[in-house]
Queue: 4 jobs
Job 1
Amino acid sequence: MGEIIIQIDGREVAAREGMTILEAAQSAGIAIPTLCHHEKLEPYGACRICTVEIENRGRTRLVAACLYSVEKDLVVRTRSEKVDKIRKMILELLLAHAPDARELQGLAKEYGADKDRFEKESSFCILCGLCVRYCAEVKKKNAVGFVDRGTRREISFIPEIASKECWNCKECFPLCPTEALQAAYVFTEALISSSPSFELESEE
Amino acid sequence: MDNDSIDQIINKHQGKASSLIQVLMEIQDKNHWLPREVLEKVSEKLEVPFSRVLRIATFYKTFRLIPKGRHEIHICTGSACHVRGAQRVLDTVQDLTGIKPGETDLDLKFSLETVNCLGCCTLGPVMEIDGKTLGKITPAEIADELKKYD
Amino acid sequence: MARINSAAELEELRKDILSKRDPDQPWIAVCAGAGCLCLGNDRVISAFEEEIRKQSLEAKVGLRATGCHGFCEKGPIVVIYPEETCYLEVTPEDVPEIIAQTVIEKKVIDRLVYTDPNSGEKATHLSEIPFYRHQTRFLIGNNPKINPKSIDDYLAIGGYSALAKALFEMSPEQVLAEIKKADLRGRGGGGFPAGLKWETARKAPGEEKYVIVNAHEGEPGAFMDRALFTGNPHSVLEGLIIGAYAIGSHQGFIYTRHDTPQLRENIDIALAQAKEYGLLGENILGSGFNFNVEVHLDIGIFVSGESSALMRSIEGKAPEPRPKYIRTSVSGIWEKPSNLNNVETWANVPQIINKGSAWYGSIGTERSKGTKLISLSGKICNTGVVEVPMGTPLREIVYGIGGGIPNGKKLKAVHFGGPMGGSLPESLIDTPLDFDALAKLGAPMGAGAMLVMDEDTCMVDIARYFLDFLTGESCGKCVPCREGIRQMLKIITKITKGKGKEGDIELLEELAGAAREAALCALGRSAPNPFLSTLKYFRDEYEAHIKEKRCPALSCKELSASEGAKKNG
């Protein structure tokens, strides 16, 4: 694989062909915030907090750093008025769901996001999909998945699988940027134990 | 729905995982809704994780995870019907049946759905009961129409 | 049916079909499009069948249930050939008289022909009716002439001659060059040049490539693709096969809706017939070119029409747009180069090959060529499917063809492109129908749904309507779209209920900006369009709702009630 020199925030960075902007930045110690990214998982591009400004062939545009592959003569700005404005808005939108999430609070401070900008709708989950994808891609268990669509999208444990797989795993818990995942699991667990058709492994 | 008819549909698609949507659609055509056991069965047969089957079944609004009523009401909420008062038609049907789009009443009499465009905008606002089109319907006429069904 | 093995055999078959048809023999075309079907044309068709049988006219009179004729407003529509006498709002009771008077006696029944509502003038023939007279119906105009279930009918009007020409007289490169020269732009919404897309797919590495017909038509108020595809499925199929030949693809997909059984049936029949004739499958027309087509039904939510989402659905996955920055024409279905065009785009291909790019280029404007199908609906006298040359002023569509606004009301705005489009005010009604002119004004053409609104339509409510539509029709994956739509809808709904406050417009603009700049797919990036365009041209309405708690159109329930009280008091 060839080496490509790109410019990030005025610094020359050597990147391997096929790398994303995010990977190139991380390798050079330049921080770009992420919420739905995980190095073990396929790029997902849902939270858009890693949006950066790029300039190439005379064109300036905004792209998701976790998805955009490096290319020759690429100029990247990880912070700009436009970028910061978008990140601030994304944080404010997410804080309406999970106002107490520590990861969001930290970023909110940095980008001046107001957690009370939008009416609270505490679903707690920000639908980053880390748990869903980790369970599918790394553990290959598919015990938790997305249901529904549009603004009604949610995560949901599958009791039949969760009752067998989750008790001894719970590896997705620390990935969650909010407390929603654990809550969903606890809820499912309660469902399982109250339903005669499911039995928890631990009770066997 | 019995296992044989499910097997038949799955076999028709050679058990291909990529036929998941088609399989669910054909099962629903026959059974009118998708019980959870059927989804489990499909997951097992097509070797698609159950969470993905559930994901697909909840992604599309046509798939129904609750039983359907004896009569299906469709209200077009396409843009042409909207500017011609579809919302008031929908409100009236909701008031009269006590159900919202996507729901079935407790007597299993009516199921209510909104649709985007039935392709007959000239008749807007349009309401359909069991496939019968009621064009240029006014909220005042709805109660009498619904009384015709039991 | 025997397999056709060469271009010469195709022409022989065509001659044979035509020789068995007497051009002077009367035949009756009854529109069986979606609109006429809702109006009860099935009873009209049965009445004709019965009357023909009763009078033993089977050998002398032809009867065809055809695709949509376009003039849905006056359905059920019946056209009697060879004179092309057009009868409107026909009932089963009219049928015996039509047979006796018009079919046999060649007399016109006055009460069934078109009467101009203003001048009282009658128009007997289809081409004289103002609704049709102002159109150029290259694509939809064949619908009344053919039975969509008969490939012979399509061959009789010259069908598949373009395919034969492409396969035997042109190289794939030449076909591609012709489409590029014609500057055919995608009819699905983006207006991207089809030739360039084809070229990308053709040049993309890999042996296996796919071509796809997008017949999803999820835009609310759009019904023209269904009308064309149901009424003339072979025209789309012929275009697809020619495209496959140019791109080097041997597998096609037709992605369509499950809720239109008529369309599905006609597609299935068309595919089976084309296969039997050797126009599809192995060694097409003896040319050595192989191509197969699979039909994929979708239950359709709006986002499934997005090209990468649609391809995920064909793979059997949830139709979420793919996040990667790579074109589907390079990496689409199962990561193979996949060229997607919509129904109308494909249907344009045969005529370009037959008549040439120069002919095609002579129609339309500088950068928008050919004709465009429009679904005309809303507060308009003549709802229907319309086809006009690109560049036609919108005024001509609304007044010349659409017959203006009913009930003596005033035109307020037209909306193009559904939830990804925008509204134009009455003052811009002389704008030409042109991809770029409309996009520049903030009302991109989209697939061609044109919604007409009068003074009783509230523009704030229209923006609310489209956002509400998207809450259940987007995938909900990325934050700027999902959460942006959620918050925008909340704020606009409050405004329509008289609970708007100072700063709401600015906050909406900020939300719109984030979705436009940072959403994952084209749907998300265009979701704010209806809001932005209504704000641009109807800001006063937003302000009246917010500051004066007043809905100028008296449409918002909560606000018009207080307005009514004021009026009474």
Job 2
Amino acid sequence: MTLSTIAVTVLWIAVLTQFPSQRRAPIRRAVWLTMLLLAAIGTLDLTAIGARLDTAAGLPNAADLTQHVLGIVAATLARYCAVAIFGTEQQRARWSAARTTAVAAFTVICLTGLFAISPARTQPTDIALYADFPMQYAAHPEVLAYWAIFAVYLGTTFVIIARLAWRYGRTAGRSPLGGGLRLLAAGMVAGLTYLGYGTAVVAAHAAGIQGPFIRTAPGIIQALFGALIVLVAAGGVLPATQHWPVARQIGLYRSLRTLYPLWAGLYQAVPGIALDPVPGWTDRIDPRDLRMRLYRRVIEIRDGYLALNPVDVPGIEATVRAAAGRRPLSAADAAMVAAATRLELARRAELRGEARAGSGDPRAYREFVAGADLDSEVRLLRVVATNWPTISRAAETIERSSS
Amino acid sequence: MDKLRRHCERRLRHMALPDPFDLGELCQAVSARRGRPLHVRRIPGPPARTRPCGIWIATDDDDWIFVDQDTSPLHRQHIVLHELAHMICGHDAAALPENDLIGRLFPDLSPAMVRTVLSRASYQSEQEREAELLASLILTKPQRAAAVMPVLDMSEAEARILRRAGLALGMDP
């Protein structure tokens, strides 16, 4: 099985797994249809399938032309999706289906017309040497114009989507949605590299340049196209995986276990937080009711933090950064870890029976606020749990210096 | 605890909850059912270890829920739901054991006006355990569990865009 076949299989799996949910909303339908078109393009790019289409149509390079036309349609749909998802109210109101369709239709007519007058209409492409007909017939001006139109239309779409998907992927953070958007952005970068490299090869052919650069081109172009397909498939599916029952249960169990030490430490200091306390071994082996148990864990950790009495510690941020050692913390994580260290100091004081009466330091709570849903709460508390060695080291340093 | 859970699940099956879940709508529904205005406010003063994180005070005419603001939106929502669960379950603290606390937190409130006070501070009583369990069950029902937007440090416009992106990529709305 070649790399291209694997990539196309992955994309078809992604398209088919998304099918049951594609009917609910127009935007979901549009995204699914874009992925379906990409899967069809990838399928036509397979040598055996493409050759059969050429034979059936009685037209050399019919598969290449069909792929390029489908590429224009997919790019147009992708632009609609980008406006519908990321656009402001004004941009969405200004977006005109008629104008976009007209531009896409004009582009398709230009490509078809240029193909019709090129030698590619009557002569087959040597697939051992060339990935696409524009590379073989690049010396003909109409083919050069064909490739330029195709590359500009697709390239513009790739740039638009890569920029938006990367920006909002970073905003969404370490979540399935953030990961999915970043993978889509990476797929668009692979697409841009494919177009850039393809353009260089076409230009080299047009200029009559030969050499290793030309000989290795088909393999590299196939690899870049495969990367585009796999990354788009992975990015398109990743956000939805959190609703797949098995993936969801595994995720819940892992979060439950990650948060157990945090909860156990707080439970030791403030036993009243637990509605139904369970020993560690039961928590580890019991696979039932995971969502409810995780929800309770988060609420009880929050109750525990509110029951503590954190105090202000001057210079705590520097101590936390020093405790992090070679693993530098981002600004957001550093503030959160400092807040968690304040709370850890309060927990230790509570355990020693030295908890201060009166009001707590509100910063220990305010630096520590997540979203309105369980997932973002879990994500935040998992940052605390995974930075526990740093928090513990920082708390010990502060305790030693104050004793 | 298993028996209490079955009891709460039975109660939940007979409750008409907003779907998708909306705390404001549930507050309005409980208020309409009780025929009394319901107000949700923050607990006055700075956080302190002796202060409960949620309090329900019923006066002759109104219900008041007070919530600690120094915690996350999910936790605040849970605290309000805990107090609503007391109302839904028909809990009553006629003996007003927490009058001392109320006097400290709300010095202007006349004890003669107060009919019921319940605070979310521990799970020692059956009433507290029932309210806590019911609140947890309401928020963990599958159809109410899918507000999966990560909202760390982002504007409302960005959150809206990410909700649309999630919807487009197969996540539940």
Job 3
Amino acid sequence: MQPQLDEAGQAGARKTPPRGATSKRRWGGGRRSAVAPYLFLLPFFAIYCAFLLYPTFSALWLSFQKAVALDTPSFIGLDNYVRLVQDERYLHALRNTTVYALASVFILSPLALAVALAIRSFLVPSVNLKSFYRISLFLPFVTSLVVIALMFSLVFNKDFGLLNSFFRSVGLPELNWLGSERLAMVSIVLVGIWTYLGVNSLYFLAGLQNIPHELNEAAAIDGANRRKTFLYVTLPLLRPTILFVVIQATIFSYQLFEIPFLLTNGGPSDATLFLSPYLYEVGFSQFDRGYAAAIGYSMAIISIFLTVIQLLLYRRFNR
Amino acid sequence: MKRKLTRRGFLKAGGGALAGAYALGLAGCGGSEQGGSSKNLEFWGFDEGRVDFARAAYKSKAFKSKHGDVKINFRILPYEQMHNKLLTALVSGEGAPDIADIEISRFSLFIKGDHVPLLGLKKRMGDDINDIYRPAAVDPWSWKGEIYGVGNELNTVVMAYRKDILESAGVKLPFETWDDVIAAGKKVSTGDRKMFAIHDLSFGDHYMLMQEAGTAYFDANGNYNGDDPRSIEAMQFLHDLVYKYKIAGIAPAAANNTWAPPQYMAAFRAERFIATWGPPWHLSYFIDQVPDQEGKWTVQELPEGLGDSRPTANYGGTGQAITEQSGNPQASWDLIKAANLTKEGVLFDFKARTAYPAYKPAYDDPALAEPSDYFGGAKIGQIYSDIADALPAFRQSPVWADTTLAIQRDVITPVMSDKTDAKTALTEMKGTVEDLQKNQ
């Protein structure tokens, strides 16, 4: 059978009638034709402008104003940003958040890599068991952070908690997990590890599965043992994944809210005060809207800064 | 027959829907008229018991006889959310209810700045002001001579303790001085049991005892007064109960409830603590959550020996306020009056939640004179009304909430952890409060 030819005599080419004729038939006018796609896009952009762009720019403008409680806001330039660097509590919150971010990078990420390696390696031989581990590791990540915080408030409870009951049963001294200035941050980090270990190990697992088996086999033929194969083959090829996990963990750390807010409420004595709960306190307890907006923008700047680093490092490693 | 939706049809329908939504939005934004006589009112609260109290007032003769055609929608929101939403609605100028419950520690947010977005109630109250215990009923919701809210609870602080345990230890009751309390505490305290549970994450214990000593966090001019020697004495006393006399332990607490979470009440059930001090709402937790100890407790006024030795203090409460967006201020006020300034109204809350009224005429009612089964037959209503005249005035400040948070953080926790001394912490707090005042 002969292929159908168009007016230009080209087989399979789409029939394109003159532009005006088509528009008129389908839409009844050229101007409408030009407007129609935008009308379809309008709902999205309307929502985007109302709920994202407007609040973003409004908050930026607010951060340059003194806007406390119900008083009419007044322009004060960069005063709120100057106040940030003079505010001991803000700096304390920044320090706490950074400590948590470092723990995420140097404790959580290596642990996640170890778990991913364990799942992939001979330690978990059955395919079904691997799937089971993947699902169970992912569960904490999809569990509501509110539920996690409530659950761990029971685990860490000084008097009736699971952890201290265990300590008692093995003859160890009970610890004031959430009430001690030294231990409260450790407790928050432990909850963070429990929550995000699974999803981070899944990232690593995906990275590991992308490494061709042939490379490992070639290394083995060349006489490399498991340690050397890991150090000189697996790890270099995992660099983009490691970078992704590390930067993700850092950005998430600077946005952490629910766990410290619900587990310790920043206490005791600000030992677990993080940036997001501090923003909430300034915004809703002190109702200092201008300063809260400046705190929010400082967090945005930190996140943008970390994202830029991520992109630069990605480029470098992908060369 | 199925109709095919053409693009034109879709655009028409979409445009119509958008126009409709816009029109509805405009209608919705209309809200309640200013100072009008709207027949549909909105009440926001955060506690089911308190909203029931308002509902009872709505159904009362006192209200229905005046506003039989007015309907009130009662809405319960979580504590934080309700206060935050209320403030946001008042800032934006739209969407606030006609009447709202405002908790004592949140009221200070409404008086930050020059403009108070609540209606003044002083004129409306008239001579009724003489029938209430002012420090409990209106002082916490007053600012610069105007009254913005009315509460029904008489939150007089008393001491409560396990009479059975103390008597079996040979302790002479009631206590006359704090020295007697310390001596008794030494008799009954062991490694597993202490007399008191002192809060290290809440300012409440200090606030109550500093009032007994005769001072408050702010003076009459709104200046920080927490470094008053009597305040320091009260804080040092709390510290000493734990570390010097060893008759108190640190109260079990949770981040979302630093005052009386389940573990705190469980400790009392397990007899790890046998005494406490607090207002009626605090004691009601024992009636509800430690029922097995009914009849074993009793109450008395605060013992002498701290500062000016007042017999009581004032702690807690929630007031009903009318917002400036109210569509019917008169009906809103009549609801508040029916709830807080009538015998019928306040007795409803007494029967429902054991809330002792701040409305004086209610004390003629026999229900308030009945002995309490839980507190060993003590006539609590009589005790409360006897000491109510000694209630210290409530000194409000726009930074009251911020200050108490700062005191919790920088005074209570470090002192009760034995990391700093009371005098240093309370003196240094002055600078923090001045910064808060400067930034507000």
Job 4
Amino acid sequence: MIEARNLSKTFSDKKRGEIWAVKDVSFRVQPGQIYGLLGANGAGKTTTLRLLATLLTPTRGTATVAGFDVVARPHDVRTQVGFLAASTALYGRLTARETIAYFGELNGLSKATIVERTAKLSRDLDMDEFLDRRVEKFSTGMKQKVSIARTLIHDPAVMIFDEPTLGLDVLAARTIVRFIRECRARGKTVIYSTHVMSEVEKLCDVIGIVHGGMLRAEGTLTQLREQYRQTDMEEIFVSAVGGEDETAAKENSEPSPNGKAAR
Amino acid sequence: MNWRQIFTVYRKELRDSLRDKRTLFSMIAFPALIMPAMMIGSILFSMKVVKSAQAELPTVMVIGGENGLALNEALTKSPKLKIVPTTADYARKISEKSVRAAVEIPAGFDAAIAGSNPSAIKIYNYNGELRSGFATGIIERIVDDYRESVVRAKLSERNLPAALVKPFETQRANVAPPEKVGGNALGGIIPYFFIFLSFLGAMYPAIDLTAGEKERGTMETILCSPVGRVELVLGKFFTVLTASLTTMFVSITSLGVSALILVSLMGSGAAKTAARSGAANGALMLDPMGLLAVVVMVIPLAVLFSALLFAIALFAKSHKEAQTYVSPLMIAIIMPAVAAMMPGMDLNAKLALVPIMNVSLVSKEMLTGSFPLGSMSLIFLSSCIYALIALAVAVRMFKRESVIFRS
């Protein structure tokens, strides 16, 4: 389970001083559920997910991930989390097998467990053919499979995906979407960020619309449709963030595209 | 501290680095092949230049030969010089190197000698030019011999013994042990070499393991795994240190081997005499204890460099940016190491605390066979402290979000 309570993060900017990349965000994701964070670039999605994955420390508020507090026990949180982002690349000079084993070892798994789990993941993801080849020569789709295996080697209870389909072709993106569904089927807690409306509609049990670092709306697709009296996700999104003019004005004053960095 | 994780990170980083051609080049190929090739090449080349310069019969002009007939004859008859007809533009010809030197015998020279009046011979040469220098030397010896013969003649005219020309002889004899001679010749350059190479060996992996990871996008991947920050830094740091020390040991070995090759090459040639006092012979005569002590002293420096480079490169977002930061550091490292090479620079209590320079200075002492234990332990200890501070800074940097996620 994931529970965020008033999760907040500020970055300091030389020109504009302190900027709230995430402000008082609270939500809850149950096991076997996919929670979708929907927002434009710079809305605070990446920062929120990095706070949950303990890559960043919150300025205020906290979150509990798989029973551990992200501020008090970041190390324990990481043993329970699989984090996959467009920005989490692989080591090109290692083979697929070595990559998976490295993350298995860092998770404290025994050699026998690593061998066994690697064999299973390789079978499931259809990786046998290239398991002992170096990652640098792989296609995007092959790399995606290795990344998935890397996040699953320690069988985490919580999966965090930060725009995992960004820059992928249709087939590679479908692999990821299928994989996310499988995670839900296995009872994992899944949180997922994207700016693609159709993905959210297809995939998410609960949708949170973020804008300007704040959670503007939350609910199932049906609930949101009722609340905003719209069927189209894009229209719902625009209404939730306060209309197109507001969106444009906000975007111009955002700290950085994606809020991807702490400065 | 989880040593298993540190070892896991270390093993992975080492494997990763060893598969990188650029790391292999800076760690092994450069110190093992290129450096000795450059050293042997430049020494052989300079020996060849000197030999061919010595073999050349220098062309010399005599100005005013009629003023000193006997001296002119001595110069003309010398098999070591080729006297060419005098022209008015001798200065230009020397500058153009078509004539190596010119001797000017002043008017009334013979008369002045007969009357025991002082006069001066002038030798025009190209100052600093090797061949002109040789020609000048030959002319000087002929002129000196002629002067001596004049004095002898004058003495015998007055019935005085010829020994008055040289009332006594001077002789040089070396009493320093051979390793001291070698140590003095190489005392400055060897530690400088080791210091520079341990830096160079650490440079590329330090950048690749920090800024390189950020650039390739693998930093975030590793940070979201359960590896501790301190464990991750230490695993990476030990990889950089391994590269640094490997570079140093490879260079020591290759230097030793190339010195042996050099001596055997020179031993067969006519330049044997030149080699006797030369650098290669000195290297062979170096006290092995001294050399070992230098290596021990450089180890904490390698730790310092590895940690320093690590901390600096970590701040950068890309290889390119990291190189911009590291280049000035290289000069900051070379300066104190070179300063210790300067003549008259000796170790004292204050200098013993100046990082890098202290190691360079004490190495100079140790290679000449003296082991100042007090200074040595002070320097080793202070180097260790500097290294630990740098490592602590690297760990702190790694824990800072603004450094790791800098954009």
